[in-house]
Design brief:
Low-confidence stretches of chain A: 1-70, 259-265
Shape of chain A: globular
Strand order of the largest sheet of chain A: 2-3-13-11-8-9
Structural class of chain B: alpha/beta
Mean pLDDT of chain B: 86
Largest sheet of chain A: 6 strands, antiparallel
Order of helices and strands of chain B: EHHEEHEHEHEHE
Strand content of chain A: 15-25%
Largest interface: A-B, 62 and 65 residues
Oligomer: heterodimer
Distance between the termini of chain A: 52 Å
Structural class of chain A: alpha+beta
Shape of chain B: globular
Mean pLDDT of chain A: 80
Order of helices and strands of chain A: HEEEHEEHHEEEEEEHHHEE
């Protein structure tokens, strides 16, 4: 077998709850097999799985004769990220040569900025990678004149699979640019809200003039944070991206309270067409660590204790860009969306 | 977030509702029995499908029978489907609703789920004396928390008006330029492709652009569903 062997750092799969589901009092026709095998050491969780199939671009049920050859042509590096759940073989990455608006599959940063260390990474979801779709998440940050740190994570809506990443990128960069200008001009009352409003209009104008795209085609969710040198953090959000404070001991506390009552991936609002009632604001959080996450990562954090444990450990101390990227390379059953995480550690003075 | 939490994985519940009346004898039922292992293989090898989709199979003729309860199809033995008797749509829709109740009720509390999708396949019309509309309406009752999307595929003697009435948004009729065996394979291809693309879309099928149906027009005539 030539598919990726993952360096598992612990037995993190839940073996107590069968993933295969049978109704109560099943009809007895079938033998339902417990699929969640323990994962430990360097054991390849995929040893018993059939050979990986190439990306499915046609609807035929028949696979091509050279599938096996295709599956052996790429290598990868081991990851510290865990494997969680009943995983299928990874599929061959595909690049789409026809979408020049595409983003690279991954991006990362890590370094000291003002009174903080900031690490961020954005990685294309494996469903995107396997079908040639571009990563559609983005992020940006800026140090304001008074030493405050503003940061933002955006997530292009998948219903605009060729263009929404442009909106995500433009919103992220324009947001921090506007925030910096307003702060420099002393107009820092409701800085995040004012930055959002002005950024939306600017992005819509840019999209139309430069790319000939409508606001809808640039749709993205957004979560932003303002960390002052002294004082509580402030947050603003449009859509289902999330912010967490991460306490010592590993408790991820959702700033906005999550979307537990919402159906999966039912995004209600998006930039650059969010109305005032679509904008959520929170403030008052104080924590050594603040996390912004697109919903691909946020959903996994909410649902997976194993992942929360892993990330708390990996994010205990400031990380390099490469390590930050690797922390998002975990595999989790059904988690196929883009993932973007931005972590800010408040550094001790002196 | 407590220490007693277990892992919860997002699932896409798919309920196959397949006509096995006597008119399906021969090539069509053989094609069905050939295609189901292919679907199982898709579940085993395609992460976008296998890690998210959960499949239930209910067959119907005069009565409905759930042959495969909602599960990871890669982990179960696929049964041989056999032809039975007449055609009773009311029993079919009652069976589908019961399968959905059992399947969705078996999921761990808090499991994030896409809205269930029922793929209905038939080569004929309702023949039993009882009226089938009340059972269909009960299946599609929007006040029911598990109310599914119903996608209807028809071939043979299935009538477009009936398929349109059954579907919530999408109905398709096989074009009559192929034999029934080939039509069954085309429907199963469409079905697997739809499950694959919807699983990979990362969107709930209930959204306007969440349900992706792979029904090429060279094989299918799309039928606009009735607006209720």
């Amino acid at each position: 077998m030539s598919f990726v062997r993952r360096q598992n750092i612990g037995a993190l799969a839940d073996t107590d709850r069968p993933d295969a589901i049978a109704g109560e009092g099943g009809n007895g026709i079938l033998e339902v097999v417990e699929p969640n095998a323990p994962v430990s050491g360097t054991e390849n969780v995929l040893d018993d799985a059939p050979d990986p199939a190439p990306p499915q671009t046609e609807t035929s049920l028949d696979s091509g004769g050279d599938d096996e050859a295709q599956s052996r042509i790429w290598e990868d590096t081991p990851s510290r990220g865990p494997s969680i759940g009943n995983l299928r073989p990874e599929m061959m990455p595909i690049l789409d040569g026809s979408n020049w608006h595409r983003l690279p599959m991954c991006a990362a940063d890590g370094g000291k900025i003002g009174s903080w260390w900031l690490s961020a990474a954005s990685i294309g979801g494996i469903s995107h990678v396997a079908t040639g779709r571009t990563r559609q998440d983005d992020y940006c940050y800026a140090l304001l004149p008074d030493g405050s740190l503003v940061s933002v994570v955006t997530d292009g809506l998948g219903s605009y699979k060729d263009t929404a990443q442009l909106g995500a990128g433009l919103m992220a960069r324009t947001f921090v640019q506007v925030a910096y200008r307003l702060a420099a001009e002393g107009l820092d009352d409701d800085l995040l809200g004012r930055s959002l409003g002005e950024a939306q209009d600017t992005v819509a104008d840019l999209g139309e003039r430069v790319y000939e795209l409508s606001r809808e085609q640039l749709s993205c969710t957004l979560v932003a944070c303002l960390l002052p040198v002294d004082g509580p953090a402030e947050f603003v959000r449009v859509g289902d991206a999330e912010a967490f404070t991460l306490a010592d001991g590993g408790e991820f506390e959702s700033v906005f309270g999550g979307l537990e009552d919402a159906l999966v991936n039912m995004v209600a609002a998006a930039c650059p067409r969010a109305r005032p009632q679509d904008v959520e604001r929170m403030s008052g959080a104080r924590s050594r660590r603040v996390v912004l996450a697109s919903d691909g990562l946020a959903g996994d954090i909410r649902l997976s204790k194993a992942l929360r444990t892993f990330l708390d450990e990996e994010w205990e101390h400031p990380t390099s860009a490469a390590l930050m990227l690797d922390t998002l390379r975990y595999r989790r059953q059904g988690s196929h969306d883009d993932r973007t995480g931005l972590v800010a550690w408040r550094l001790d003075a002196g | 977030m407590t220490d007693t939490e277990t892992e919860l994985f997002t699932l896409f519940p798919v309920f196959l509702l397949v006509d096995v009346s006597v008119s399906m004898a021969g090539g069509p039922i053989e094609a069905l029995n050939e295609c189901l292992p292919d679907l199982k293989r898709e579940m085993a090898t395609n992460h976008m499908v296998g890690e998210i989709a959960r499949i239930s199979l209910t067959t119907f003729s005069e009565e409905a029978e759930e042959l495969i309860p909602l599960c990871d199809l890669a982990s179960v033995d696929v049964p041989q489907i056999e032809v039975q008797g007449g055609t009773n749509f009311a029993a079919a829709f009652r069976g589908a609703r019961a399968a959905i109740e059992r399947g969705m009720g078996s999921l761990a509390k808090g499991t994030p789920v896409y809205r269930p999708v029922v793929f209905f396949m038939s080569d004929g019309e309702h023949q039993a004396k009882e009226d089938w509309i009340p059972a269909l309406d009960r299946l599609r009752d929007t006040s029911w928390k598990y109310a599914p999307e119903v996608v209807a595929f028809g071939f043979g003697d299935a009538k477009p008006e009936t398929l349109k009435r059954i579907a919530t948004r999408y109905a398709f009729q096989c074009k009559n330029n192929n034999d029934p065996t080939t039509q069954v394979r085309e429907i199963m291809n469409a079905l697997v492709g739809s499950i694959r693309t919807t699983s990979g879309s990362l969107q709930d099928p209930a959204q306007a652009q969440g349900l992706h149906l792979e029904a090429p027009t060279e094989h299918f005539t799309p039928l606009p569903a009735f607006q209720i």
